[in-house]
User: Fold this.
Amino acid sequence: MLFHGFYLGGVFYALSKGISASLIALIVSLQPILTSILARIYLNEKLTRNQWLGMSLGFCGAFIIILSDLKEGLTLLAFISGLVGLISSSLGIIWQKKIVDELPLSANNFIQAFSASIFYIIITLCFENYYINFTYSLFMAMSWQIFAVSLGAFLILMWLLEHNKANETSTLFFLITPVSALMAYYVLDERFSYLDFFGLFVSSIGVFMATKYQRKT
Assistant:
């Protein structure tokens, strides 16, 4: 429910309320910082000075890329939805790390998807209508969500949490914003400026510094 329900649900709901993709990416980019604080409290994980510096560089690189979009379409409801997604993803990572040795990855992913299905059925019955327009675009979008995100990305995330610290894994979230900007350049023909490239470079250096000192590879 934390990952698939409140995190993805919060992000998509914020987008439906008018927030720009860049702004929601900035909010999500705060996740490694929040996760590291929670990991220090609940998992007794500690960050070195170089890892803190790497996290700072990662955030700065993400912020550089979306600096020009900070005034686009921000409403209070969309902002709160983004915060719900941010907090839920951090709590989900901390909780997953605490139970990581108790379940195999395949069973873990099945339980997460099944629980999220129940959650969304309840939400749908309470707030949505019952009409779905089955189009090619819907089929492609849902296929990507199911196979690339729910099966692919989250399975990789669970594997990373099994082999690394929570704060080291969450640091990779800093790359969401610059990689999204790069993909938008190729897929959506959006502009990718020298400033964007500089932000991508800074974020990459930050992630490298924050993950270089992990105990396991």
